[in-house]
Please model this.
Amino acid sequence: MHVTAWVLLAAVAVTIAACSWVLGLKDGDFPISDAGGGDVVTDVGIPGDERPVLMPDASTAVCDGGVGVRNLVDDTDAVFVLQGGSMIVGSCGSKGDPCGTIAVGITVANGSRAKAIYIGPGVYPETVSLPSGVAMEGGFAVNGATWTPACENLSTTIAPDAGVAVTVQGALNAAIRFLTVETKSHGDVGESLFGIVATDSALTIENANVYAELAGPGLNGNAATQLNTSDTNCTESGASGNAGTPAMAGAFTMTGYQVGGAGGVGTTGQNGVGGTYTAPACSDMCVTGCMAAIDDAGVPVDDAGNEITDGGIGQCLTTTQMSCGVDVAMACGGQGGLGGTGGGSGAASVAVFAVGGTTLSISGGALVSAGGGLGGAGGLGASGSMGQAANNGMAVDCETTCDPTCTTPTSDSPLAGGMTTAGGNGGAGGAGGGGGGGPTYLYATFGGANVTIAQTAQWQIPTVGALGGAPNGPVGAFAESPP
Model:
């Protein structure tokens, strides 16, 4: 080999080593594994939540070409964006006069048909819709008009307060490189979170960290209101109601994730049993009528029909009848409590969602999903109403209006009326069924989209999903991708 060739090889080797140091490839700056193999770590971002993370190979972390560049396009084909830059669409976009927001940079790129949007360090709190044929890249050290490419992707972050951070719709040959993409920190009730959503597009994601944070939970069910009434039939058992059925799982659609339905309503408790009934005591010893027998002239007569002239009363005609206490209505049991309403299901957390005719290639970086939304708890059932109090019938006194010479009753004590014991309480209503936990995926596809993972890193297969609501709400799926 010629001496000149040896010198050139040595120079290239020195340049590669310099690139690795100057561009910041040191421990802690970029999570890489041993050369030739992938690595998986678990980043605990929220206490109690495991976050499955895909880490890059060492081969994907070096500068493209190995000489300190990343195959960047010419400055004339690029639009440069830097926080604090210009907002004037007609003039911004160069290294010396960068645009102040990504949105302005995209507008400039669309007008100039630029091939790349290069973004300086900082956190950009804006949602992004990436156009066709454009590579959006971070990973630059900026000093005035000097933009130096770097081999790390943490200095530029797209982090809007939104459920979807970046959308790619109907785009061809689009790319996202050396960026961190984050959704809002926590989904609202029932809101799914997606870091990147690509629909009917050809997209490449290289050395990008994509974070989908905790998705929104389901609403808790409503507790039932107690019924303060009694049963009119006095026939039920007073048993408690049953819990409502748990919610069904949700499903992905072309527009995102449709959360599962709410749990079923708990059944109403049965009415309380009626009180026992006792018949009233009765007596036939009470005199109810008494008069002397008389002739047509109104003169009293004896048993033979002869007029009595000596002042005697004569024949006394008496009658008796059974005399009872007044009857009483049965004491009914309380009415059963209503069941609580079901809890709502949690939403999905997905780092990358590919939809329709999308062809997606992912290499390097990290895909992170913090967790699906928790299922809402079913509402508590109401307690049953109290049974009616014991009822006692009125007492009845014997009549004692007869002449003392006639037959008199053997007793003038009151007679007892009918009576019942108290009715039983109604049974409590059942709790509403729990909502399902939302799914957690590093990436998901729908409608025939194709995803290629162009590296040898292993995926962590999680085993714990977002909890479903009580009672018995199903646990959300938690995996690399849907089955």
About this structure: The two ends are 55 Å apart (CA to CA).
